[in-house]
Protein backbone atom coordinates (compact mmCIF):
# COMPACT_ATOMS: atom_id res chain seq x y z
CA UNK A 1 0.00 0.00 0.00
CA UNK A 2 2.33 2.66 -1.13
CA UNK A 3 0.42 4.29 -3.90
CA UNK A 4 -2.67 5.74 -2.37
CA UNK A 5 -2.85 8.64 -4.76
CA UNK A 6 -3.42 6.33 -7.67
CA UNK A 7 -7.06 5.88 -6.90
CA UNK A 8 -7.64 9.38 -5.77
CA UNK A 9 -10.73 10.77 -7.37
CA UNK A 10 -10.79 14.25 -8.68
CA UNK A 11 -12.81 16.49 -6.46
CA UNK A 12 -15.77 18.08 -8.07
CA UNK A 13 -15.29 21.73 -8.42
CA UNK A 14 -14.04 24.41 -10.74
CA UNK A 15 -12.42 22.86 -13.76
CA UNK A 16 -9.42 24.77 -15.06
CA UNK A 17 -9.95 26.00 -18.58
CA UNK A 18 -7.98 23.92 -21.05
CA UNK A 19 -7.19 26.46 -23.78
CA UNK A 20 -5.65 28.87 -21.30
CA UNK A 21 -4.68 26.24 -18.75
CA UNK A 22 -6.52 28.03 -16.04
CA UNK A 23 -4.68 31.27 -16.49
CA UNK A 24 -7.56 33.10 -18.11
CA UNK A 25 -5.17 34.56 -20.62
CA UNK A 26 -4.20 33.51 -24.08
CA UNK A 27 -1.27 34.59 -26.14
CA UNK A 28 -2.45 36.17 -29.32
CA UNK A 29 -0.06 36.82 -32.13
CA UNK A 30 -2.42 39.10 -33.91
CA UNK A 31 -0.53 41.92 -35.52
CA UNK A 32 2.76 40.08 -35.29
CA UNK A 33 3.28 40.99 -31.69
CA UNK A 34 2.43 38.47 -29.02
CA UNK A 35 0.09 39.85 -26.48
CA UNK A 36 -2.06 38.50 -23.74
CA UNK A 37 -5.76 38.53 -24.28
CA UNK A 38 -8.61 37.35 -22.16
CA UNK A 39 -9.44 33.75 -22.90
CA UNK A 40 -12.74 33.68 -24.77
CA UNK A 41 -13.54 30.21 -23.48
CA UNK A 42 -13.58 31.13 -19.84
CA UNK A 43 -13.91 34.86 -20.34
CA UNK A 44 -10.68 35.45 -18.51
CA UNK A 45 -11.75 33.65 -15.39
CA UNK A 46 -9.49 30.67 -15.96
CA UNK A 47 -12.30 28.36 -14.96
CA UNK A 48 -13.96 26.16 -17.48
CA UNK A 49 -17.50 27.33 -18.03
CA UNK A 50 -19.63 24.33 -18.69
CA UNK A 51 -22.71 26.21 -19.72
CA UNK A 52 -20.73 28.45 -21.99
CA UNK A 53 -21.25 26.38 -25.10
CA UNK A 54 -23.59 23.82 -23.66
CA UNK A 55 -26.40 26.28 -24.01
CA UNK A 56 -25.75 26.59 -27.68
CA UNK A 57 -25.83 22.87 -28.21
CA UNK A 58 -28.69 22.05 -25.95
CA UNK A 59 -32.06 23.60 -25.87
CA UNK A 60 -34.29 23.40 -22.88
CA UNK A 61 -37.24 21.38 -23.99
CA UNK A 62 -40.64 21.93 -22.58
CA UNK A 63 -40.29 25.66 -22.74
CA UNK A 64 -42.32 25.92 -25.89
CA UNK A 65 -44.69 23.10 -25.24
CA UNK A 66 -47.63 23.30 -27.51
CA UNK A 67 -50.74 24.11 -25.66
CA UNK A 68 -53.25 21.58 -26.67
CA UNK A 69 -56.79 22.82 -26.81
CA UNK A 70 -58.61 21.34 -23.93
CA UNK A 71 -61.75 19.47 -24.86
CA UNK A 72 -64.83 21.14 -23.66
CA UNK A 73 -66.06 19.07 -20.79
CA UNK A 74 -69.54 20.10 -20.02
ZN1 LIG B 1 -9.68 30.00 -20.58
What does this structure look like?
This protein has 74 residues and is mostly loops. It has a domain at 14-56. Helix content is 11%, strand content 11%. The chain has 1 helix and 2 strands. Strands 1-2 form a two-stranded antiparallel sheet. The longest helix is centred in the last third of the chain and has 8 residues, at 50-57. The chain is flat, with a radius of gyration of 23 Å. The model has no long low-confidence stretch (mean pLDDT 76). The site of zinc ion has 8 residues, from loops.
Structural features:
11% strand; flat; binds zinc ion; little secondary structure; 74 residues; two-stranded antiparallel sheet
- Give the biggest beta sheet: 2 strands, antiparallel
Regions with pLDDT < 50 over 5+ consecutive residues?
none
Class computed from helices, strands and strand pairing: little secondary structure
User: How much helicity do the residues have?
Assistant: 10-25%
Question: What is the topological layout?
Answer:
Elements: E1 25-28, E2 35-38, H1 50-57
Antiparallel strand pairs: 1-2
The protein binds zinc ion (ZN).
Zinc ion binds next to loops.
Task: Put the structure in a nutshell.
The chain contains 1 helix and 2 strands.
Amino acid sequence: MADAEDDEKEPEGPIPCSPCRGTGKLNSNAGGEPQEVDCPWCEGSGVFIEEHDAQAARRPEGEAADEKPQPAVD
